[in-house]
Amino acid sequence: MKILITGADSFIGSYLIPELLKKSHELLLIGGDKAKLLSRYNQCLALSHNNPDQNYIIETIRLFDVEIVIHLAAHSTPDDTPEDFKKLINANIMFLGKILEALKNTNLKAFINTGSSTEYLNNNNIPEPAYLYSATKTAASFILKYYAAAYDFKFCTVCPYTVYGGEFTRKKIMDIIYESLDAKKPIDTTPGAQVLDFIHVYDLVRLYLNIVDHYEKVPNETVFHAGTGNGHSLRDLVRLMEECTNKKANINWGGIEYRKRDVMNAVADTAIQKELFGWEPFIPLREGIAKYIEENQQ
After folding, report:
1. Which of 222, 208, 220, 64 has the alpha carbon at shortest distance from 157?
2. Cβ proximity of 197 and 162 under 8 Å
3. How far is Cα 71 from Cα 69, in angstroms, rounded to an integer?
4. Which among 5, 61, 128, 217 is least buried, having the fewest CB atoms inside 10 angstroms?
5. Mean pLDDT by groups of 10 residues along the chain of 298 residues
6. pTM across the whole model
7. Neighbour count for residue 175 (Cβ, 10 Å)
8. Separation CA 123–CA 130 (nearest Å)
């Protein structure tokens, strides 16, 4: 298949692209740095989203004759300042619009969008964006719905829950807890009552691959809640890390207040991927934590 990947230099992209290449897909990559993408994936075509010549991007996409899009590109922030608003609109709305315009004259069959679990504040599969970032992702899905209907392609959305494992470019909750183990100074966190669904990046990549392989049988507008279906509180996570390392976490629970509209319960309903593909997570949390610790010790 001819696949266009936006956000090719993202965390998920760095694990998904090698797996797609193993399956002999032809890839057109869009990211921030074209040279870095080509040095890492020299068998692919690449574009920079910073290229001021938008006509060149549009023409390259048209000539590539895209069949599937995997849209990973996004700007994420917990804040809602005027500057954040501008960045979120530019990255999550305007950039998506440019890609959709470029796809008008292609043979696009399926668009795999990436959303967020934070679009579902009440954890009931009914959209209720928790943050401004989440609101832009929900708005983007309605824009995508219009283009899919107007230009005759199907789309689905993958909403990752709390992804861990691999090499993150920015610090995540698991990194914060790991750094607290036997730390001399306590690390401030929220009270830790949030119940989250931790999914290893390898399992998340497997879900994207399943969708690519079986896109024809995925119903239009399907939302894949990409988690394991099992919830753990942050305090549960700390206990597991302590057991796996025989160390004690030095955490000041409640040293940081919960965010405005913080998501307190985010556990994925994974029924649709089980029904369509027989997808199940391969890596339980305890095993994933052991892998995480081993990778950090190396």
Report:
1. 222
2. yes
3. 6
4. 217
5. 97 97 98 94 94 86 95 93 96 96 93 98 94 98 97 97 85 91 95 96 98 97 98 96 95 94 96 97 95 85
6. 0.96
7. 14
8. 11
